[in-house]
Design brief:
With 323 residues, the protein is mainly α. It has 14 helices and no strands. The chain is flat, with a radius of gyration of 25 Å. This is Glutathione transport system permease protein GsiC.
Amino acid sequence: MPDVVVGDAVVRALTAVGKRLLAAVAVVFGAASLGFVALQLLPGDPVDWLLGPNMTASPDLRARVRADYGFDRPVFEQYLSYLNTVLHGQLGTSYQLQQPVTTLIANQLAPTAELAVTALVLALAIAIAAAVATAGRRPRLRAGVSTAELVVTSAPQYWVGILLLTGFSFQLRVFPVAGAQTPAALVLPAITLALSIAGVLSQVLREGLEAALTQPFIVTARARGASLSAVRLRHALRHAAAPLLTLTGWLTGTLLGGVVPVETVFGRPGIGSLVLQAVTSRDMPVVMGVILLSAVVFVVISTLVDLLQLALDPRIRTNGDRP
């Protein structure tokens, strides 16, 4: 009998891993396909994007460029060739910079990762502190914090960044205006990126905490002499963490989009500035490379979130339908 139970557990685990791998392949394949379709639907001649707006080329040169880059081949053949390069870990060469896209992304990835991770940690700290302090307490304080969360969530990130720059860089001169040379230069960009995320996370966590505080296990913990703060932090917070983790994973996957205006406002190097330059100059290999990077980040974060949920909620480990 124990061997049967272990065998069933192994089958469920392998099935879950297989589903996760298929989902990951589907996400990356879908991102690559959609990026290719978007490239084909853009108006204009890709030869013009490659040569640049200020270069006048003869018909022979244009024909040579078209043949060298495969623009003269059928679209489906171009699509298969593109998928083949992606499968081999190659994302092509930048039209404007004439460097491998993988090299360009690798050179700009560290500043963006530093900003995104810092902003995510800060957002989680703000959200947990605000939710724990206001869940089920002081209706006026809760209403005030909820209003502030709504404001920072709705405000455009570039607007928040400009306000922080005006107050703390131009007037008080506490933090640098631009660049990424010192740790102080990371503070304002991280706060700008974190505030909108923290507002959403705090609202979700507060609702989960208030629902958890009405459960029978909370009454049992209180009856055993646990303080209200201990009940919130040790029992209710863990119970409410599952939806928070799910939302955090989804928001983390969207951080690459959020860093574009933030890095632009604060003059930071990174993926955001690379994407802005590529979109402006129609450097499509770079744009498609960042799209694929976003898909891979989404897959990795989703997998990590599932593993954390397994650790936090024992009920999921006994459910064969969840990984």
